[in-house]
Amino acid sequence: MPNVHRIESRVAELPVNAYLIEGERELVAVDGTLTVSGGRAVRTRIDELGKPLAALVVTHAHPDHYGGVVEAIRGLDAPIVATAGVDEAIRSIDAGREAILRPMFGDEWPTERVFPTQRVADGEVLGFGDIELRVQDLGPGESLHDSVWLLDGNHRDVFTGDQGYNRMHSYLADGVGCENSDRPPEWPGLQGESSFVHCTRPRLGRAGLAPDRRAQRSG
Ligand SMILES: [Zn+2]
Question: What distance in angstroms lies between residue 33's CA and the mean position of ligand 1's atoms?
Fold first, then answer.
């Protein structure tokens, strides 16, 4: 069964997670953090694990998930995978984020960013040895376009991007709102105690929503 490693990057008190899925022979990365140091931390862990990186998937169109990808995969052949909507949204926002993030983070905001190189459709399953990942395309959500990735055969592991938080606050300023998407995510193994979903989507009732949902609505 694949093993999941979490890499936390913390810059200016902003914690950001990326993940490495370790299969028998290969690795798949989920997101790349915001910063140069965050991306390099992902890369250090890749090198420590000593297995080739088969792909890096990007969950959604926020810079704290794609910004550090350039450092995470520097010199590697791994494709950067996302849905078409996430890919388009990242490319559409990137130039504008430079003006906001450079003053905030200085050299920690990568001078060069990289974008998805491979697009996947909703429901598509990607296989890398014993790692099977299925994407669910959510449309506008916590960012201009969101997706979640499920590790098939092991439904405990759902990579939600910022759809699923643990008692922390989602980003609200994109203002698109989860209600714009017309169907709920399918997260069959989501455990109520392990994930708290920051989302106004009314059908997401299973994951202990009340305190956090109230917080988001007040934003
Ligand atoms: Zn986000």
Answer: 11
Amino acid in the structure at residue 157: D
- Quick one: DSSP state of residue 89? H
Two structure tokens written together for 210: 């009340």
> Which residues hold their Cβ within 5 A of ligand 1, which is an ion?
62, 142-143, 162, 171
pLDDT one-digit tens code per residue, 118-131: 999 999 999 999 99
Q: What is the DSSP letter of 78?
A: P
| CA 66 to centroid of ligand 1, rounded, Å | 10
Amino acid at 47: D
Per the CB < 8 A criterion, the answer to whether 35 and 28 are in contact is no
Residue 69 CB-half CA count within 13 A: 30
- pLDDT at position 182: 45
Cα 25 to ligand 1 centre (Å): 30
The alpha carbon of 169 and the centre of ligand 1 are apart by a number of angstroms equal to 10
Instruction: Please give the CATH topology (third level) of the domain spanning 3-162.
Output: Metallo-beta-lactamase; Chain A (3.60.15)
Report how far ligand 1's centroid is from the alpha carbon of 78 (Å).
Answer: 23
Q: Which two tokens stand for residue 204?
A: 């997401």
Q: Between the CA of residue 3 and those of 47, 70, 97, 137, what are the distances in Å?
A: 16, 24, 34, 24
